[in-house]
Design goal:
This protein has helices at residues 46-53, 76-82, 99-103, 121-134, 151-164, 181-196, 208-214, 237-245, 247-251; strands at 6-17, 20-31, 35-39, 61-66, 69-70, 84-87, 110-113, 116-119, 169-173, 200-204, 217-222, 225-231. The chain is an alpha/beta fold and 252 residues long.
Length: 252
């Protein structure tokens, strides 16, 4: 777990919810600068694992390391301060705020004049434009209210905010589930740009074609367990289906 090429790892993770054993002795790792995918049917434990890793849930047992050090986050804000941002399906954007305001939500730039502090809106707009340009994200204006943006643009803003906060690792839970073909392509292009910038990504997706296009490593889960991991270049969709359904074990 102290491999310098690994940004996040866990082992022996167990999680119970009453009589339900949601995670069973889970071991998982994500490499620096790569896109690591987690696949599995509904109820396989994918989202529960992520919530344990970022502090939404506290695991009942097991060890977690982030950036080479033991980690046990008290909550998502704690994980965020450490350098892990999570982009959920229900985006945490404020519709009535502008693009720039959303990008700097809870980390606003302020300037002081004597004992007084003021929001530096000009600086936030300038930095917002620079960040959007760096990631090739197209929106009409940083002063546009988020409610007027398309689903793909909103997803891109959410990812952009994670990068702008200086995240070393961005976790994406079904980032294109509700998007059309073109918007999906735009978000996938953004994921590739994050990898080019050496930002590590963990991707949860039911779309095996997307996983094969984007990821470097795939982890398969079934019934609360990790049942296999493969380098993406050395596997295919049929093998992944066999892993998550248990057909691979039956064939063996």
């Amino acid at each position: 777990m102290s491999d310098p090429g690994t940004i996040l790892a866990c082992r022996g993770i167990h999680k119970h919810f009453g009589g339900i054993h949601a995670l069973k002795d889970v071991a998982f790792s994500a490499k620096r600068g790569e896109v690591t995918a987690i696949v599995g049917d509904n109820g396989a434990g994918k989202s529960t694992l992520i919530r344990c890793l970022v502090g939404v849930h506290q695991p009942d047992a097991g060890e977690i390391t982030f950036d080479g050090r033991p980690a046990r986050f008290a909550g998502p804000d704690d994980a965020r301060r450490a350098g892990i941002e999570t982009v959920h399906q229900n985006l945490a954007l404020v519709d009535e705020l502008t693009v720039a305001q959303n990008l700097f939500l809870n980390r606003e730039i302020v300037r002081r004049i004597g004992p007084f502090r003021f929001l530096d809106r000009r600086a936030m707009k300038h930095q917002a434009r620079e960040l959007l340009s760096r990631l090739s994200i197209n929106v009409p204006s940083v002063e546009q209210r988020v409610r007027r943006l398309s689903g793909g643009q909103r997803q891109a803003i959410s990812i952009c905010r994670a990068v702008g906060a200086g995240a070393a690792l961005v976790i994406m839970d079904e980032p294109t589930a509700a998007l059309g073909v073109q918007e999906t392509a735009n978000v996938e292009a953004l994921v590739r740009r994050l990898r080019e910038e050496r930002v590590s990504v963990i991707l949860i997706s039911h779309n095996f074609d997307q996983v094969m296009r984007l990821s470097d490593q795939v982890w398969a889960m079934r019934a609360g367990r990790v049942v296999g991991t493969r380098r993406t270049a050395e596997t295919n969709g049929n093998e992944l289906v066999a892993l998550i359904t248990g057909a691979a074990g039956k064939a063996a």
